[in-house]
Every structure is written in structure tokens, then in C-alpha cells.
Amino acid sequence: MGVFSQAMQWYPYVVHPITVLGVGILVLIRYEWGRQAVDSSAFWHRIGGFLVAGAFALLPTVVYFLTRDVSVVAATKGNAWEVDALVAGGVFLAAVVNWVLWRHYRWGRLVPDAMQALAAVTVPYALLSPFWNVSGHVTIALMPTLYLTLLDRRFWPTLLLPVVMVPNRVFLNAHTWAQSVGAFVVTAAVVVGVHRLQTGEEHA
Questions:
Q1: Around 83, how many Cα atoms within 13 Å sit in the side-chain half-sphere?
Q2: Nearest 5°: phi and psi at 16?
């Protein structure tokens, strides 16, 4: 196996979409905090809130396996739409909890706006999965990187992560070109659409 093939084999593990999502939101939290006149304790309170909210992402999966007579290995083998639905449901729930926390404590608008976009992309992902196996890796990796870039163009290099993920999924025979590119296009349309609605509200 060549260096390129090995790199492509390891890529979805080293650059796991959930890691990209988590780090992307952490960068956003730091970016928003840095623009506010608040002390460092406020930053760590937000990190703690984010971690608590992130734990809620596991809830749908935990409930599923506690109430079903199925092993984790069997359920996660292949590209089952049920797993996609669990991931989408967990991400949606974490986005809602984050949105509530930020709004309740008035920590700023950028993070809750991003959570709206995150929740929005889980909807087509979950709805399409039973009929069309769109790539969750591409969807989840693109959402935070694109949102950061829309907020500040200096973040554009992060877009390389989901861009590489598109051919990676095809190379690994996990998805077709239509499924990978389709996930990129649908997610980009949703994120850009939500962001435009948000910026339109700010200027209204």
C-alpha cells in the first residue's frame, strides 16, 4: 500500500467529522469570547457549557441500544440509515442544548446562530439517509468550517478538511461521487441559507 492510499485510509479517523465539529465550535467560542470585554472565567464557563451540551449528543444512541436487542458492532456495520438517524438526532439535540445555554446566559449571538445552522443541516441528512446514502462525514465536517469561513474569511483554510473528505469517501468505497458531492452541496446550501437569513435579520 502506497503513502497516498495509507493517508486516505487514515484520513477519516485522524480528521473525524465529530472532531472537526467539536474543534470548530470551540474555535467559534474562542472567537466570540475574544470580541467581548469579559474575563477568562467567562470563557471557561462557556467551554464547560459546550462540553455538557455535547454529552447530550450521546443520548439518542444510548437510549437506542438500551431499548433494542442489537449489538453495537452489528448496528454500526456498513452504512445503516438508522445509525445516520442516531447521529443526526444526537447532533440536533446537542445544538438545541447549546442554543438554550447561550441564550439563557446571554453569552453572545455567534454560537447560537451556528447552532441553528448545525440543527438545520441534520434535517436533510436524516430525511435523505433512508433513501439516499448521503455522506455524514462530509456533512458534519463541512458545517463548522463553512460557518467559520462565512463569519471571517481568515478561516477559509479549514474548508480543505471537508473538501478532501469528498474524494476520500469515494476512494474508500464508503459513498459514490453523487452521495459525497451531494452531501457537500446540500450542506453548503443550508449553511449559507441560514447564515444569510441571520445576517438579514441583523440588518433589518
A1: 16
A2: -70, 135
d(CA 101, CA 107) in angstroms, rounded, equals 8
C-alpha grid cell for residue 1? 500500500
Average pLDDT of adjacent 10-residue blocks, the chain of 204 residues: 88 94 97 93 95 90 73 55 87 96 96 98 94 94 98 97 97 96 98 95 64
3-class SS letters over the chain: CCHHHHHHHHHHHHCCHHHHHHHHHHHHHHHHHHCCCCCHHHHHHHHHHHHHHHHHHHHHHHHHHHHCCCCHHHHHCCCCHHHHHHHHHHHHHHHHHHHHHHHHHCCCCHHHHHHHHHHHHHHHHHHHCCCCCCCHHHHHHHHHHHHHHHHCHHHHHHHHHHHHHHHHHHHCCCCCHHHHHHHHHHHHHHHHHHHHHHHHHHHC
d(CA 175, CA 136): 10
- The reported pTM is 0.90
